[in-house]
Specification:
- This protein has about 350 residues and is of the alpha+beta class.
- It contains 7 helices and 17 strands.
- A 6-stranded mixed sheet has the order 5-3-15-14-13-12.
- Strand 7 and strand 8 form a beta hairpin.
- The two termini are about 25 Å apart.
Length: about 350
């Protein structure tokens, strides 16, 4: 049974740590790989990324697998959350072996951040090592194939998409070959997810699932969005993050290709993307439990094509799910209405 989430890739777990109230509106999300790690890669296309340990994922470099990936709020300050995850992994002997003792490990924990500073009212309220540890502990405590909370949780707690509230979303698909491809996103884009002429989500237009709201509903939504936006400071920095995972057996180079094509899924759901004030980053994880088998007429390396296409599609669906799951925020740091309160759950 699948739950339409990143956790449909067997062995992958997701945990959130969420901080709200008292000036806080932020959090951290950890994707925990199966013990022994997963082949990992990354593709960074935003002009203002905040990342950690991404160079280690270059196919030319030594590290092949990672035990966890951290997505966090707090801009570059929030990258400290990865330290808490590293400590938790070290205590369990999980990481790159660097000495004769099994405890001599260095966990490689790639991380990327979104800008949400001050959105809860306190600029200094941001994730730290303790937040990261809480998120990885939540991931480890979850059951195999557990449902993943979406919306204003974890790294999506303070996320926004244009003038609307953003958040965390996830989706998955099982290919005819039996390979699972899934995605988890933190939708926090400077661009818009909504067609301004109709109110339809761009991602649903691409999927052919768009249900157009009545004109009066759309006009009322536009007025409410304009009023809310007038109360907020201009959005200075934003980022959409994603982790795309599969149980297919991939090399680091193939995983990097998956991370790169998955950016197409962001471009279908957010317009514009990859701007100078975005930090759009996609990680790819491959657990390798299923061989990458070619279908009819797709021999050799072309067997990867189905996985690449599915990666982009699941990212688009995950962004739609994030926006639809997000709830509104009206607090000292600003006002962001939610898509579902403006347009309903059509």
């Amino acid at each position: 049974m699948t739950v339409d989430a990143l956790t449909d890739v067997a062995g992958v777990r997701v945990g959130h740590a969420t901080r709200t109230g008292g000036g806080w509106l932020t959090g951290t999300t950890v994707v925990l790989a199966p013990e022994g790690g997963a082949v990992a890669a990354v593709d960074v296309r935003g002009g203002g990324p905040g990342t950690k340990e991404t160079d280690a994922l270059d196919p030319r470099n030594l590290v092949r697998t990672v035990e966890a990936v951290v997505l966090t709020g707090g801009s570059a300050y929030g990258l400290d959350a990865a330290s808490g995850v590293m400590a938790w992994l070290e205590e369990r002997g999980r990481g790159v072996r660097v000495g004769p003792d099994p405890a001599h490990v260095v966990p490689v924990v790639p991380a990327a951040c979104v800008f949400d500073l001050g959105r809860g009212g306190d600029f200094r309220a941001r994730p730290d090592a303790a937040t990261g540890r809480a998120a990885v502990e939540a991931a480890a405590a979850s059951g195999p194939g557990a449902a993943v909370p979406q919306g204003c949780v974890g790294a999506g707690t303070g996320a926004t998409v244009g003038p609307l509230k953003g958040g965390v979303g996830t989706a998955s698909t099982v290919l005819a070959s039996g390979v699972t491809v899934a995605a988890l996103v933190v939708a926090n884009a400077a661009g818009s997810v909504v067609d301004p002429e109709t109110g339809v989500l761009y991602g649903e237009l691409f999927q052919g699932r768009a249900v157009y709201p009545e004109a009066r509903v759309h006009e009322d939504a536009r007025r409410r969005i304009a009023r809310a936006a007038a109360r907020n400071a201009p959005p200075p920095l934003n980022t959409t993050l994603a982790v795309v995972a599969t149980d297919a057996e991939l090399s680091k180079a193939q995983a990097q290709k998956l991370a790169g094509t998955a950016h197409d899924g962001i471009a279908r759901a957010v317009r514009p993307v990859h701007l100078l004030n975005d930090g759009d980053t996609v990680f790819a994880l491959a657990t390798g439990s299923r061989p990458l088998e070619a279908g009819p007429g797709t021999g050799g390396p072309l067997a990867l094509n189905e996985v690449l296409a599915a990666g982009a599609d699941t990212v688009t669906r995950a962004i739609v799910n994030a926006v639809r799951a997000a709830g509104p925020v009206d607090g000292p740091g600003g006002t962001w209405p939610a898509y579902r309160e403006l347009y309903g759950q059509r």
